[in-house]
Amino acid sequence: MRLRVSRPAATVPDVCLLVVAWQSVEHWPLVVGANRDEWLDRPATAVTVLRESGPRILGGRDERAGGTWLAVNEHGVVCGLTNRPVAGGPDPTRRSRGRLPLVAAETRTAEEAAEALTAEVASGSYNPAWLLVGDRRSLHHLAVHPDGPAEVERLAPGLHVLENAALGDPSPKVDHVRAALARAAAAGTPLWEALPVLLRDHSVIEAPDGVHRFADGRERRTATLAPCVHTDGYGTRSSALVRVGEDPGALPELLVADGPPCTAPYDDGRRLWAAGEA
Question: What is the longest distance spanned by two Cα atoms in the chain?
Fold first, then answer.
């Protein structure tokens, strides 16, 4: 039986997962795995051409608000977003945070993207979010607050895991992801092969009432702590794998599952780099 998640008006259970390996995989400076979780009845396209040229941008599209949760451009800039939960849900009078990955992907480098995002957040009123934006040369974390400037941090090489909590905050979901990938690495499994296995994983932390309580008082349904989420009316809607190679002239590789990756296959999205594809 699947867990039922109620949906009060104007609220969502803000759950997504971003796994980013930067400068830690031979020949692939940037490797990204992402699951997008959302209400099942919210219209969305798993992957499409978000901008035709200057630069060409691929990613998912929220057909209701028009933004995206993950965007990658022809230069190898990749930006992913997770929502920051707020009491009462997102403020409908603020700009859609789904626009932010598009702002990042309009640039040629991740460093330029971090600067563009900082300026964009300063000039507009956005609902809070966390973002990771990287390329072959750098990786940055941005915390977007309801008011005030964004906090920007340049990250060191290694594995970075972001869910709907501040980067580095205690999280059983993040702990599970790190442990699973560490076991895969110890077994000699390349990250590109380990990520699809992880992203379709339904493992959860058991709790008598199905609720995990954090030390700071926050509560989450245990079903939303699995990498691949399934509840009544809500869950993992799509999944994506992106990797950017060392050659600055090579286009990023992109695999996308149009549905939960436990049932939907990963299809090669590289054809979308070609003009005329959509």
Answer: 53
